[in-house]
Amino acid sequence: MDGKPQVTALRSGFTTGACACAAAKAAAIMLATGESVQKVMITLPEGGGATLPVEKVERVGDGAKAIVIKDAGDDPDITNGATIVVEITPAEGDEIVFEAGEGVGIVSKAGLSIPAGEPAINPVPRRMISESIREALGVSVRVRISIPGGEKLASKTFNPRLGVVGGLSILGTTGIVRPFSCQAVKQSIVCLLNVALANGADRVVFTPGAIGARAASQIFGINHEQIVEISNEWGYMLDIITGKEVKKIVAIGHPGKLAKLAAGHWDTHSKRSPTAAPYVIQMAEQIFSRAMPESETVEGVFGALDRGEMEILGNSLAKKISEAIEKKVGGRLEVAVALVNMKSRLIGIYGKMDEWNKN
């Protein structure tokens, strides 16, 4: 790749780790030769190289600083266009020391790939940066990475839940951002699960999003660190959790999402699985022995019932979902299910929920 990421139908981009690596190499070249480069070649973790443009390079005291503007290609990356600033200064010893500057977070919880108290610069970017600096400079340095405005951007990411405080993480396992890939989302969700387990949880809540998370906290008093928002990745995360030290899983969410599991659809995204409304309508008709009005949504199906019928259908549906999850995990975990409406009010439950404690 030369200049900018390779152009395809959807253009790939560069990770924050790759951008920080390029900036670090440009700063190292300045420190070693006095040359202000306009672009640098970096080595990608999976082999091959990439050339990134450098916005600015300058000497700063006995060190040097370089800036690279992140280009995420056609991916809707929240850090696209962010300014990645790397300053390097000579250091004693044989190691390269990493520091978090403005907008780069600090890890505050166990369970991530970086120990608590360290800058949130992941292992692969650390290795890339270290190798680039040694290639260009050959001596030990302090590496300070900053992302102006990063703390504000971080509030819109998983970082606050992961225990990364004060800013963004420097990420990337390949150096390349592939547009609209689900892999980054999956990795973030697994990180949330690992943090929950590292903080002593042997029971976790899986929920599609904010509605279920709010219900888990407000209705059942579940500690927020045990709540993992997994979006649409039910099949993936249930496969992951069977290899973890977990005794029980509770699924909490709107039946519009969770009923898809009972129907055998483990990716609940609307583009990759059909609506659960026909499944729930058929179930209601079997339970109540009458025709149900047509509805495009599961919320509409429940809305056509009185309170008593709603509870009957909700509990029956929760049982079906629980049975589907138990089968998916091979019976290795205890399972409970709670269904809530759009207002996070309980409309169905199956399994034991009384052992949860408030924060």
TrEMBL record:
Name of the protein in question: Cobalt-precorrin-5B (C1)-methyltransferase
GO BP terms, alphabetized: cobalamin biosynthetic process; methylation
Pfam families: CbiD
NCBIfam families hit by this protein: cbiD
KW Protein biosynthesis (keyword) present: no
EC number from the UniProt entry: 2.1.1.195
Listed Gene3D superfamilies: CbiD-like
Transmembrane segments: none
Record-linked SUPFAM superfamilies: CbiD-like
PANTHER family: COBALT-PRECORRIN-5B C(1)-METHYLTRANSFERASE (PTHR35863:SF1)
One function term, GO molecular function aspect: methyltransferase activity
Keyword rRNA-binding carried by entry: no
Keyword tags: Cobalamin biosynthesis, Methyltransferase, S-adenosyl-L-methionine, Transferase
